[in-house]
Design goal:
Keywords: Coiled coil, Membrane, Transmembrane, Transmembrane helix. By secondary structure, the protein is mainly alpha-helical. 72% of the residues lie in helices and 11% in strands.
Length: 222
C-alpha cells in the first residue's frame, strides 16, 4: 500500500522500523534533498543562462536593427544622390542640345546672311548691267535762262513727259518712236521685277512696241 511521507515519519518516530532502516532512510532523504537542491541550482543556472542568452539575442537584434536602419538610411541617401545626379545630367544634356541647336541656328543664319549678301550683290550687278542695256537720259529746255527737264530718253528713244505730250504725238511720225520707247520701258520693268523678285500690281504683257498693262480690277468688274 502506498503511504504518505507524513505517515512514514510518524512510524519512524514511534519506532515501528528498525534503527538501521531509519538511518538509511534518513540518509536517503538527505541525499534526495541534496539532489533536489542541486537540481534547483541547475535550474536556476539554466534560467540565468537562458535570460543571458535572451538578453544577448535582444541586444544582437537591436544592434542589427540599428545596422539595418543605418543601411536603409544610406540606401535612401544614395538614391537621392543618384536622382540628383540624374537630374543634373538631364539638365546638362538638355542644355547641350539647346546649345547645339543654337550654334546650328547661328551657322544657318550666317549662311543665310551670306547668301542674301551674295544675292544682293548679284541683283545690283544685274541691275547695273540693265543700265548699260537700257541707258536712260534727260533732255533739257531753256526757259528764261534756266534749264529744266523737258523729257526722258531710253536707248535714244524720246519718251513723252506728260499725257498732253502723248496725245500730241499720237498720229504723227514720232508715234512709233514713242511706242518703241514704251516697249523698252516695259521690257526694263519686267527684267527688274524678275531680278528683284518684286511682283507688279498690274502685270505687263510684253509685245515689243505693242506692249500693254493689264488692269485686273477693271477686268474683274467687267
Amino acid at each position: 500500500k502506498k503511504q504518505t511521507a507524513a505517515e512514514l515519519m510518524q512510524k519512524i518516530h514511534e519506532g515501528a522500523f528498525p534503527m538501521g532502516f531509519v538511518e538509511s532512510f534518513r540518509n536517503y532523504v538527505k541525499k534526495q534533498e541534496s539532489l533536489v537542491a542541486e537540481f534547483r541550482q541547475s535550474v536556476v543556472r539554466k534560467r540565468q543562462n537562458l535570460e543571458e542568452a535572451a538578453q544577448a539575442i535582444q541586444s544582437h537584434v537591436e544592434h542589427h536593427q540599428k545596422q539595418v536602419f543605418i543601411c536603409f538610411f544610406f540606401f535612401l541617401a544614395n538614391i537621392c544622390k543618384y536622382m540628383y545626379m540624374y537630374t543634373l545630367l538631364c539638365i546638362y544634356t538638355h542644355d547641350m542640345i539647346a546649345l547645339q541647336k543654337y550654334e546650328k541656328f547661328n551657322e544657318d543664319r550666317q549662311i543665310l546672311q551670306l547668301n542674301d549678301r551674295r544675292l544682293r550683290l548679284r541683283q545690283h550687278k544685274m541691275c547695273s548691267q540693265l543700265i548699260h542695256i537700257f541707258p536712260i537720259g534727260m533732255k533739257h529746255e531753256e526757259n528764261n535762262g534756266t534749264f529744266r527737264v523737258h523729257s526722258y530718253t531710253i536707248r535714244s528713244r524720246e519718251l513723252p513727259g506728260s499725257v498732253d505730250k502723248v496725245m500730241e504725238l499720237i498720229g504723227t511720225n514720232k508715234e512709233e518712236e514713242m511706242n518703241i520707247g514704251l516697249g523698252h520701258i516695259a521690257h526694263l520693268c519686267m527684267l527688274l521685277c524678275r531680278y528683284l523678285y518684286i511682283p507688279l500690281r498690274h502685270p505687263i504683257e510684253y509685245r515689243g512696241s505693242r506692249s500693254y498693262i493689264i488692269d485686273c480690277f477693271i477686268e474683274a468688274e467687267t
